[in-house]
Design the sequence.
């Protein structure tokens, strides 16, 4: 933060939840699976409007990145059971019950196609198709609410996979996602130079300069609120930060997609929550990072306080220590 910014921050109070996740260690088999099958997810997104990020995350989770027996022997990458209307080949596998019937496919491509049709042709999933295809959080929570899986942490696991492996980039155009994201960032910087409101003198504040966006304070930490179509590059340019610096404070990557209303910290978070916040009950769609953002504490500290390893995913209804 430069000297000018420090002198002109207008401090208010308030709190908004941000839905993000910090980067965790990568699993090689997951990355290999993504490299091998991302094109199928992108093709299905164009055809059925199911987010490619959701498709990949479900496939990784359901098939253990293609290593599960059902995926290897039956090309079933989404754990889809036979149900009454299945006319194709079948295989039997222990799941919630012993010796359950699962669909067998001729190829992985067939599995991806059938998964799309499975969601698109069933009325209980209809509401998901009303969501923006970039709203992977909404899709993840919706899949759990609609009963796709019985795991209480299912939505949270999907969100963690999407954010840890940047699968959201495939919702922006597949293989070109990272390039597109970079181009968008550069375009945003150029647009800001032309369109952003420059700090100006306020007669109501004895000549004090105002910043081009509001800044607030909660739990002793200074933050701002993301706008529609915002980015770390835009916020950094507005407030005199480096993009990398802001991303580090918020424990995400620089290209992480922001949603309107997300809270963006402008300084390092704390090691424990402020009193009287002692515990948090996990809600559907939350991650260790989103919880840490809500209370203004570091992700690493939250894991340490609860004696969890980096691969831990909180399940709905669990209680976590905050200090």
Sequence:
């Amino acid at each position: 933060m430069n000297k000018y910014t420090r002198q002109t921050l207008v401090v208010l109070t308030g709190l908004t939840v941000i839905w993000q996740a910090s980067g965790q260690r990568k699993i090689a088999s997951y990355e290999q699976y993504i490299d091998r099958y991302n094109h199928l997810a992108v093709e299905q997104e164009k055809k059925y409007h199911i987010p490619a990020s959701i498709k990949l995350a479900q496939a990784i989770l359901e098939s253990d990145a293609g290593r599960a027996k059902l995926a290897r022997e039956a090309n079933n990458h989404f754990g889809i059971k036979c149900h009454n209307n299945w006319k194709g080949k079948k295989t039997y596998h222990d799941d919630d019950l012993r010796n359950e019937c699962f669909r067998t496919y001729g190829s992985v491509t067939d599995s991806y196609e059938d998964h799309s049709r499975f969601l698109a042709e069933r009325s209980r999933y209809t509401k998901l198709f009303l969501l923006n295809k970039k709203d992977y959080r909404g899709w993840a929570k919706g899949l759990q609410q609609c009963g796709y899986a019985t795991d209480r942490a299912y939505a949270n696991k999907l969100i963690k996979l999407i954010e840890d492996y940047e699968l959201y980039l495939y919702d922006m155009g597949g293989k070109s996602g990272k390039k597109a994201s970079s181009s968008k960032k550069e375009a945003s910087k150029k647009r800001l130079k032309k369109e952003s409101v420059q700090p100006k003198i306020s007669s109501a504040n004895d000549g004090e300069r105002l910043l081009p966006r509001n800044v607030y304070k909660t739990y002793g930490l200074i933050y701002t609120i993301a706008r529609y179509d915002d980015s770390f590059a835009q916020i950094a340019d507005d407030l005199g930060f480096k993009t990398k610096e802001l991303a580090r404070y918020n424990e995400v990557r620089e290209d992480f997609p922001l949603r309107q209303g997300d809270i963006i910290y402008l300084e390092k978070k704390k090691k424990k929550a402020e009193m009287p916040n002692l515990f948090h009950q996990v809600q559907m769609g939350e991650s260790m990072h989103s919880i840490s953002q809500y209370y203004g504490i570091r992700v690493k500290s939250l894991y340490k306080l609860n004696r969890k390893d980096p691969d831990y995913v909180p399940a709905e209804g669990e209680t976590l220590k905050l200090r």
